[in-house]
Amino acid sequence: xxxxxxxNTTNIDLTNAMNDTLxxxxxxxxxxxxxxxxxxxxxxxVRNRRNNxxxxxxxxxxxxxxxxxxxxxxxxxxxxxNKSSGFWTTSSTRHPLRHELGHAIHKTNIGLTRFRAEFxxxxxxxxxxxxxxxVSRYGSSSRGEFVAEVFSGLMDGASYADPVMAxxxxxxxxxxx
Length: 177
Ligand SMILES: [Zn+2]
Fold this sequence. Notes:
The chain has helices at 12-27, 75-84, 95-110, 112-118, 125-134, 143-155, 162-170, and strands at 4-7, 35-38, 54-57, 62-65. It is α/β, with parallel strands linked by helices.
């Protein structure tokens, strides 16, 4: 698949979700990250790790998934709750995987230097209002989180208002062909 995948989990649903997420991104024409790991030990030093289903490790170009996170035990209910509260832009159980993959593909799209510089840049007030209303609260926290949230939504078949897509393009969001 062009990616170094290491899965250390007995959760078959999670393994399948990860493979499906990689396949949908590859089929959409995106370059996959170097590494994808499902391994709880990667999160052993992370605070609140039970609340952290997945993460993108920039230095390793690694989408890291935490099979011990509470989310993966109750993903249908939790994903729906995250959507209905406005925190996430989709209610898909694959949302965390697509979101983290979105960071990786965004980095490849705009290059490491620009990604590093812009990832944590805050949105301005008008942009935050636009994103909270049309995307998600998670997406309103920085340029990088905005791009990852919209990417996850696009992969889920969502569409967004023109001003949202204009902002997404401006920040180098990866477009589906
Ligand atoms: Zn993120």
